[in-house]
Amino acid sequence: MKDDEFVLLLIKSKLGDNQAIHQIIQMYAGLIYKNSYINGKFDEDCRAYIESRLVAEIKKFKKVIKF
Question: The domain containing residue 24 runs over which residues?
Fold first, then answer.
């Protein structure tokens, strides 16, 4: 994905576009999954928490990179 495509996706996510939010979550799914282990066991609540924090932080962006 090119930088300008990601910025557009980020803007759409910030504006509440659920499909764009889902796309960003899918882009980082491997990293989210990897960090959802507690004591060597996958934790679904941890995964959900990470995803919810990701969405919350996206919505906090005040400026988006201009291209």
Answer: 3-60
Give Cβ neighbours of residue 45 (< 8 Å, ≥ 6 apart): none
Tens of pLDDT along the chain (67 residues) come to 888 898 899 989 998 999 999 999 999 999 999 999 999 999 999 999 999 999 999 888 876 555 5
Nearest Cα to Cα of residue 20 among 59, 62, 67: 59
10 Å Cβ neighbour count for 47?
Answer: 16
pTM above 0.85, yes or no: no
- If one counts the domains in the chain, the total is 1
- Could you tell me if 8 and 22 are in contact, meaning their C-beta atoms sit under 8 angstroms apart? no
